[in-house]
Amino acid sequence: MRVLVLNGVNLGRLGKRQPEVYGSTTHAELAEHLVQTGRGLGLEVEVRQTDSEAEMVGWLHEAADEQLPVVLNPAAWTHYSIAIADAVVQVPRVIELHISNVHAREDFRRHSVVGPYVEGTIAGLGLGGYDLALAHIAATSPA
């Protein structure tokens, strides 16, 4: 089964941006880890990152058209992008993911416009949250 892991704005800066919040692992290292983890779970994982909202919407449309599950870290778009939310609602399975505990941060980070349209949300478990999301998809998808 093919799964898209879609990472939003600024996540290409992993390893450089606020390592005290997001850790020292780079996005390239995360992507390689997730491909290997997915392989071990019987999943074909494709990891993408963009700072372009239009590109993210296009990827979500692709997932909707191909009926692909998605692990989505919308990053800052979580809090205000109706365009992302409108695309998410079309995808059959989306797990929303946040590396940090958004509920323990600034007030504006506590609201998700995509949250009502996802299967579940993982927040605050660091990069390990991605592993949990993939394990959930593998365990709950029809063979």
UniProtKB/TrEMBL annotation:
Q: In which pathway does it act?
A: Metabolic intermediate biosynthesis; chorismate biosynthesis; chorismate from D-erythrose 4-phosphate and phosphoenolpyruvate: step 3/7
Q: Where is the active site?
A: Y22 (proton acceptor), H98 (proton donor)
Tell me which residues are marked as the site Transition state stabilizer.
R17
Q: What is its EC number?
A: 4.2.1.10
Catalyses which reaction(s): 3-dehydroquinate = 3-dehydroshikimate + H2O
Q: What family is this protein classified in?
A: Belongs to the type-II 3-dehydroquinase family.
What's the subunit arrangement here? Homododecamer.
Family annotation (HAMAP family)? AroQ
Function of the molecule: Catalyzes a trans-dehydration via an enolate intermediate.
Q: What is this protein called?
A: 3-dehydroquinate dehydratase
